[in-house]
Amino acid sequence: MSKAMICSCEDVTVDDIRHAVSRGFCDVESVKRYTGFGTGICQGKSCSAAVAALLEKEKALKPAAVVPFTPRPPLYPTELRLLASAPVDESQPPVGGLPQDVDAFPAALRPEGPVPAKAKVVIIGGGIMGLALAYNLARAGETDVVVLERGYLCAGASGRNGGGVRMQWGTPSLVELAKRSIDLMKGFARELGINVWLRQGGYIFLAKTKPVAQRLERNVSLHNRFGVPTRLITPDEARGIVPGLTMKDCLVASYNPEDGVIFPWPFLWGYAQGCQKRGVRVETYTDVTGFETSGGQVRKVKTTRGDIACDTVVLAAGAWSPQVAKLLDVKLPNEPHRHEILSTEPLKPFLTPLVSVLDSGLYFSQSMRGEIVGGMGDAKEPAGLNMGSTLRFVSRFAQALMEQLPAVGHVKVLRQWAGCYDVTPDNNPILGRTPGLDNLLQMSGFVGHGFMMAPAVAERMAQWMATGESDELFTRFNLRRYSDAAGHSRDFGSGTLEREDMVIG
Amino acid sequence: MRRLPDVPPRGRAITVDLEGESLPAIEGEPVACSLIAAGEPMLARSIKYHRPRGPYCFAGACSHCLMRVDGVPNVYACRTPAREGMKLERQNAYPSAKVDIFESIDWFFPKGMDHHEMFAGVPVAEQVMAKVARQLAGLGLLPRTPAPVTAPARTVRTRVAVVGGGAAGLAAARVLTERDVGFLLIERDDALGGRLANGAPEAGGPSLDDVHRISPSSVLTRATALGLYDDEAGRFLAVGTWEADAPRLVKVYSERFLLTPGGHPPTLPFENNDLPGVYAGRAASLLLRRYDVAPQTAALVGWGAELHALANLLQERGTKVVAVVDLRDSPPPGAHATAVRGGEPKAHGLRGVSAFSYTREGGGREKVSCDAVLVSVPVSPSFELARQGGAKVPFDAQRGLFVVETDADGRTHAPDVYAAGDVTGGGTAKDAAAAGRRAAQALVGGLS
C-alpha cells in the first residue's frame, strides 16, 4: 500500500501529521505527542525537519513558532549496562541537568487575540487537575470557565510521569480516591472518545528493609477494607509474576493485581476536548502575570493576553503553584523536586506489573508501546523547578534496574527526561479555600501522584464547588493544617497530621 | 545493489547466518552492506504496518536496518561489523519477514491510523483492541541472557572537545594542533573524514590530508557522543566508545565544546519512501567509496550540489543512472544527462524498489525501471548536543531545516559551546572547513 512516511520509526505518515493539525495539534511538541513522530528509535533525527517544514508550509505554525522539540539524551540508543558503568557519588547531591530552558516557550507560540474579559471560574494550570476540574464543572452545568496553561497540554508533570495508577496507598483517603479514579479511567474512552490504554497488570512493591516490610504488611488490611485485593507475596511468588526478577535483598513484596498503567497524554486531550465541546475555554501558551485583589477576594487574573475578571480562581499549577501563589502574597509550603525518568527501545511484552523497590524509589513498568518506562527517586535532590537531565540518574537507575532484572543489560535507553514532584510537608495535597482569600481555591501538592488522583479529586471538587455541600476532603486537606492558630508553621515530623508514606522516591 | 566487478576485496571473505541461511560477507564491513550486496535488501518489518524495510541512512540515524544480532534486539545492522558466523534475524514479522501476515494491517489503513480514537469507548472492541495492540507493539524480544558487565567508565579532561571528524572538525583540529592547545576529537565512525571520505567528491573541496597532521592520541574513533551533561565537576560529554571490542563509557570534561557533528540524512516524504532499495544519497556514496557496493540502475531525487555530484560519481563507477530529478532547481551545468527539474517522486515495488516515477516540470509523468532510489538532500543538522548546551536552534524556512545559530566565528548562545559545518545549516565542505578553522581560532582566543 502506497504511503508517504514522514517518521518511519513509528510509521507516521504525512496524512497523520495533517490529521493531527486538523484536531488542533499544531505546535511541534503537541504534534509529536499526538502522532508519535520522533518518539521512536531515531528520536527525530530523520523526521524533525520534514515535520517542521510541513507545519510551516501548510501554515499550521508561524515561522518563529517552529522550534524543535526538546532533544533528550542519549543522542543514540544506549545500552543500560553502559550507562550503569558511570560512577555515582551518593554522598553528593545531584546538581545541574541539561538542557536548562526546557520550559521556555517562544512568544510566537502564544495564540493571537485576548483571553475572555470575564469568567466565573479561572483555573490556573492546564495539567490533568485543572482540565479534569474544568470538565467536571462543565458537566455540572458551569461552562463559564477559562483554563490557563503556560505551555502546550502535557508540558508539565501531567505529560512527564510514568503513567502508573495504583490503589496501594498508606492512608484511607488516598486508597479511596485512587480506587474511584481507576473506575473513572475504565470509562474514560466511552465518556470522552479517546483511548487511554489502561492496562491492569498490577503493582508489586518490594521491601528491602524491615520498616518498609512492616509498612507493606500494615497496608494489606487497610486495602482489603476498601475492597482492594492487595496481598503480601513471597520472593518466589514475585518471581512467578515477573520471570527473571532477582528479588535481590528483598524481604517481602505486596501485590495488587488491579493496579496498572495508563498512557497519560490522552487524558489531557480528552478532558480538554470535552471542555471545549461544552464551551469552556482552554488557553495554552498563556502566562499568569499577576492578580487584582480587594476585600479578601481575587477580582482579576492578569495574563500575557489580557485580564480576566472572575468570581473564583482555582490554583492547579502543580509544582508551579507556590510561584503563582507568591503573586498573591500567599505562601504555599509546596516545594518542587525534580524527578527523572527514562524510556527504552520498545520490546514485545515481557513485563506485566509495575515493579517498585520502595526503599530506593526505583520503579519500572512496560508501556503499551513496549518500552520500559522507569525512574528512581533521589533523596538528595534539592528543591527547585529543574527539568534538566543528568547522567547520575541514568546510571543509578540502570544499576538498580539491572540488579533486579539482569536480562535488561543490552536494552537500550532512547530518551531521558524530568518533571517536578509538587512536594508538601506531609506528602498530602492542598485542597479547598485559602485563608484570607476566600475565592482562591487550592488544588495542588500531590507529590508525584496527582495524575492518578485527578479524575476522582476533580469529580469531588466540582461537586463541592457547584453545590456548596460540605466535603471532608476540602477541610482535611486545607492549607490551614500547616499552621497553628497563631499562624506559625507546624512540624510534621511530630506526627500531628497523618503523613502519606507510600510515595515512590 | 551489487559489489563492483574487478575490484579486489577489502577484507576476508566470510559467511554470516541470516535466519539459517549462509550468506557471503566481507569481514569488518557493516553487515547491512554485506546483506544488500548478497541480494537481501529487506532486513526488517516496520513497527505498525509491517512494511518491508531495508537500510536507508547507513549512519545509525533511522530505524530501517534494526535486526536481532546474536540474540540482541534492535541492533543497527548498518553500524555492526560483519563477523564470521554472526546470527542475524529479521524482527517484527510472522511467520517470516518475507511472508508476513501482519502486512495486511498496511492495507486496512490506507490513510494511516489514529490509535487515539480507534474503537474508543466501543464495548468489547475496545478491550480486544487493547489486548491485540499490546501483543503487536514493540520491536524485538528481550535478550534471553544477562549482558556482560562493562568496565567502569573512564574520565578524561581536555581543553577542547571536538565532536565530529568531518570537514569542519578536521580543520579545527589542525588549528588546535598548530596552536598547541590540548583537544580530543570524538568521531562516531571508525575512520576520520566524514563526507570527505564518504561523500560524493566536491570540486575544489578540502583534502583529507589534515587527518595525518593530528596526533592519534587526540582522537577517539568509534566513539559516540551520547549527551552533554553537567555535574559537580563541570560540563562533560558522555561518550560511548569501544575498547578492545567491548563498550566503554568515557566522561570528557572540557573547557570548550566545539560541535561539528554534521547532520543526519533526513526523510524526504514521498510515496513509498520507505521501500527497501530507497537509500540516502550519503549512504550510496559511502557504500561506493568505502565498500565498493553500488546499484546497477539508480534513480536520484533531491536537490543541491551533492545530488548532481553523486549522479556523476555513480555513472563513472558503472551504475546506470536512469533519472536525476531536482525538486528545487534547474540542473546546473555539468549535471548528469538525464537530470531534469521535476516533482511528485514515487518509488514502486512490492518488497523492494523496481521503478521510480516523477512529474516533469511542465507536466507529464515519467516512470523508469531501477533497483535503487537515492535521496540526496542537504543533511538535517545534528543540533541536539548544541541545544542541550544552551545554543539557539531556529528554523530556517528557506532550507526547511533546524540550524544551530552562531556568529561568523562559530560562537553560539552558550559561552562554552561553538559550532561549525553542516550543523549550522550546511554548505560545501570547503565552507565547513573554513568555518571549523574560524571557530577553533576564536575559541582559542578565549581560553585562559
Provide the CATH top-level class of the largest domain in chain B: Alpha Beta
Question: Given the structure, what is the number of helices of chain A?
Answer: 14
Mean pLDDT of chain A: 95
CATH superfamily of the largest domain in chain B: FAD/NAD(P)-binding domain
Distance between the termini of chain B: 53 Å
- Class by alpha and beta content of chain B: alpha/beta
Choose one word for the global shape of chain A: globular
Which quaternary structure do these chains form? heterodimer
Low-confidence residue ranges of chain B:
none
Q: How large is the count of helical segments of chain B?
A: 9
Q: Identify the CATH architecture of the largest domain in chain B.
A: 3-Layer(bba) Sandwich
* Low-pLDDT ranges of chain A: none
Query: Can you give the helix content of chain A as a percent range?
Result: 25-40%
Strand content of chain A: 15-25%
Radius of gyration of chain B: 23 Å
Largest sheet of chain A: 9 strands, mixed
Within the largest sheet of chain A, what's the order of strands? 3-19-15-18-17-16-7-9-8
- Write down the domain tally of chain B: 3
The CATH architecture designation of the domain at 109-159 and 265-334 and 427-494 in chain A is 3-Layer(bba) Sandwich
DSSP strand tally of chain A: 21
